[in-house]
Design goal:
With 242 residues, the chain is α+β, with helices and mostly antiparallel strands. Helix content is 35%, strand content 23%. The protein folds into two domains: 2-116, no CATH class; 141-237, Sandwich (Immunoglobulin-like). The chain contains eight helices and seven strands; from the N terminus they run H-H-H-H-H-H-H-H-E-E-E-E-E-E-E. Helix 2 runs antiparallel to helix 3, helix 2 (19-26) packs parallel to helix 4 (47-57) and helix 3 runs antiparallel to helix 4. 16% of the residues are buried.
Length: 242
């Protein structure tokens, strides 16, 4: 129903858009070619549409009476009639061209509506299908080892470890992300650093080191991984249990 309403609106809008051209052609305006060009190229600005409409309604030279004044009777009648000579001359745009442009506008509107309202696949059509590629959460890395200690000066908590690329493709811009928490599990701070080997080749293991500003409230830490641009890289924890 909504698509039908849009189609009707688009058709009506196309007709209204070309009203100045229709009037110029109906009146046999001697400048109907220029009016059509103004209408089709600048009508969308509304100002251009108004100018084209006023121009189409302007008096033709043959509508002027003696001395430049218009004869009232013939002037009014000429607004709604065209002489046989004017129709045979046509002066700019064949009516067929106007119809073709209007038809193209309607076809364009129909195409847009068809694309916008194209029905998507139902859940029953996609149910039970296997994904074409592994989900984004599939582990791509293995965390083999990690250790944390406070630097000699006491200014930093240093998290070191070893990570392995468990995929069949190199991983560029891999960063280790260290996070520290207090005794109650509250987050304190985090930092990250690019792993030592970049790119990390398939099956290769790389050391990493992350330095976080030390805080006496730090009680535990955690390690994660991400790309340089921030996307998380899922991993599986292979660290030996303590």
């Amino acid at each position: 129903m909504a698509g039908l309403l849009l189609l009707v609106a688009a058709t009506l809008g196309t007709v209204i858009y070309f009203v100045p051209t229709f009037i110029a052609a109906r009146r046999g305006h001697h400048n109907q070619g220029a009016i059509f060009a103004l209408n089709i190229f600048l009508g969308w600005t509304f100002v251009g549409w108004v100018i084209a409409l006023v121009w189409a309604l302007a008096k033709r030279p043959d509508e002027q009476g003696p001395g430049g004044s218009e004869d009232l009777g013939t002037g009014v009648a000429s607004q709604f009639s065209i002489s046989a000579e004017q129709r045979s001359k046509g002066s700019g745009i064949p009516t067929l061209a106007i119809g073709v442009v209007a038809l193209l506008g309607i076809l364009f509107s129909v195409t847009v509506i068809a694309v916008v309202f194209r029905p998507g696949k139902s859940s029953t059509e996609t149910a039970g299908r296997e994904p074409l590629s592994p989900p984004a959460s599939s582990p791509q890395l293995e965390l083999l080892a990690s250790n944390a200690y406070v630097s000699d000066g006491g200014g930093y908590m240093i998290i070191e470890g070893l990570v392995k690329n468990s995929t069949t493709k190199p991983i560029d811009g891999l960063m280790a992300v260290g996070q520290v928490y207090d005794d109650a599990g509250g987050f304190i701070s985090s930092d990250k650093a690019v792993v030592d080997y970049n790119p990390l080749l398939p099956g290769q293991s790389s050391p990493f080191k992350v330095m976080i500003r030390h805080n006496p409230a730090i009680a535990r830490y955690d390690v994660g991984f991400s790309h340089v641009f921030g996307r998380t890289v899922p991993h599986v924890d292979r660290r030996p249990s303590k």
